[in-house]
Amino acid sequence: MMGSAGAFYAAHALCVLLSVVCVLLVAHWNSSYREGFAWDGTAKQFNWHPVLMVVGLVVLYGNAAVVYRVPLTWRASKRPWKLLHAGLLLLALFFSVLGLCAVFDFHNANRIPNLYSLHSWVGILTVGLFAAQWVVGAGTFLLPCSPLTVRTLVKPAHVWLGGAILVLSVVSCISGINEKLFFVLKSSTNGTKPYPQLPPEAVLANSLGVVIIAFALVVLKILSHKSWQRPEPRNEDEGYRQVSVDES
Amino acid sequence: MMGSAGAFYAAHALCVLLSVVCVLLVAHWNSSYREGFAWDGTAKQFNWHPVLMVVGLVVLYGNAAVVYRVPLTWRASKRPWKLLHAGLLLLALFFSVLGLCAVFDFHNANRIPNLYSLHSWVGILTVGLFAAQWVVGAGTFLLPCSPLTVRTLVKPAHVWLGGAILVLSVVSCISGINEKLFFVLKSSTNGTKPYPQLPPEAVLANSLGVVIIAFALVVLKILSHKSWQRPEPRNEDEGYRQVSVDES
């Protein structure tokens, strides 16, 4: 049991480390190689898109998903951790929607059509499913009037769709990074080497893609571990240890 | 129990249906819109790449993964189904490697560098992990001399990595289809409408991407269902029912 907890904390530390690396890489890519940020309809506004999607749809989303697996959170009432789970996901959804606004605004300002690429189809599907999952999740697990039978019925689907949305997020991010590098790394553009010659920017952004995949696999591994799941008390808003104490 | 089996067969039928749609869409795309197939270093050789990767790395791979979930296969010895699982995966690996040969040959014939894009990094990682998983899987579960303790130890990692490789396959396919459409659907090229105007080819190939994602999610859903797993007898090469009969 101690070994299992130790393995969990090692996996969780890796998850946090990869989160930090993802954020640093995506911020460094867009600030140092893509001329930084603005909200003015130029490419600088577009640069918010990868940063907000990686931070919201991948990093915050993945960390929110594993909150209940942290053994520290098992000792007290479930309610504050539920609020943290829902709160982090709401922030993740806010960042994702803001990230979509950045790219839609940029397209509209530059008369580029929206939602034509496969990347955009998968991306909009991902954010749509995420929004629906948040609303159904809040209605089911946060509203006090929601009956226990409904919660028990919805929970497996909620957990499964949560993992599926993370997979879709990764598909969206990788196809988006790949597409962006083909757009900007052309031999004709201001002296940079083209993508096939792997200039430093290409190595950096490709590495970001690999780290995003590693992060998502660690999160999915943590979620799949049966023995790392929060032991469920009879009343799900009570803490597990509390119930044990009551019983003794 | 009957309801659970009914739900399994519905999910499995959907899995088979989506497999057929994937194969038809990728074949139709490359034969009708991309000028068909050859093995001559031209774009016609490249066209084998998407077809072989979708058929091998997604369709055959996914169907091989769910073989043990089919209740029909629980009645007899596990050995023939193990050979079917390993055989389908070997065919899938063969198609995937042939698909890589198609694109490497095409690149070399046209002096295009290999392995620079994020799509290619993820793709080569996927096929590499798949090859390693097949070799370790065969050594662990097919070799009669492999001890039961090793099989028990390796199985959870084998099952988990199997799902992870399917996720990576989907990431590779979606980023590849997206990249290909940006390459070929340009306003300058022989009268076709550019990608942003969503010509029929773009709708077809984007739809292929969506169907690949749907197929993978159905496979992952089938694999995640605890009650759809093959009941394990004491001797894993015996059939479950057989063991029950022996005991009675």
- Domain module tally of chain A: 1
Largest sheet of chain A: none
Q: Could you tell me how far the N terminus lies from the C terminus of chain A, measured between alpha carbons in angstroms?
A: 21 Å
If you compute it from the alpha carbons, what radius of gyration of chain A comes out, rounded to the nearest whole angstrom? 20 Å
Oligomer class: homodimer
Instruction: Give the chain pair forming the largest contact, with residue counts.
Output: A-B, 38 and 38 residues
Low-confidence parts of chain A, pLDDT < 50 over ≥5 residues? Answer: 238-248
What is the tally of beta strands of chain A? 0
- Percent strand of chain A equals under 5%
**Helicity of chain A, as a percent range:** over 70%
Element order of chain A: H for helix, E for strand: HHHHHHHH
The CATH architecture name of chain A reads Up-down Bundle
Morphology call of chain A: globular
Number of helices of chain A: 8
Under CATH, the topology of chain A can be stated as Four Helix Bundle (Hemerythrin (Met), subunit A)
Mean pLDDT of chain A: 91
Structural class of chain A: mainly alpha
Overall CATH class of chain A: Mainly Alpha
Please give a structural write-up.
With 248 residues, the first copy, chain A, is mainly alpha-helical. Chain A has one domain: Four Helix Bundle (Hemerythrin (Met), subunit A) (Up-down Bundle). Chain A is 72% helix and 0% strand. The first copy, chain A, contains 8 helices and no strands. Chain A has helices spanning 2-33, 43-46, 48-65, 79-109, 118-141, 148-184, 200-224, 240-247. In chain A, α1 (2-33) packs antiparallel against α3 and α4 (79-109) runs antiparallel to α5 (118-141).
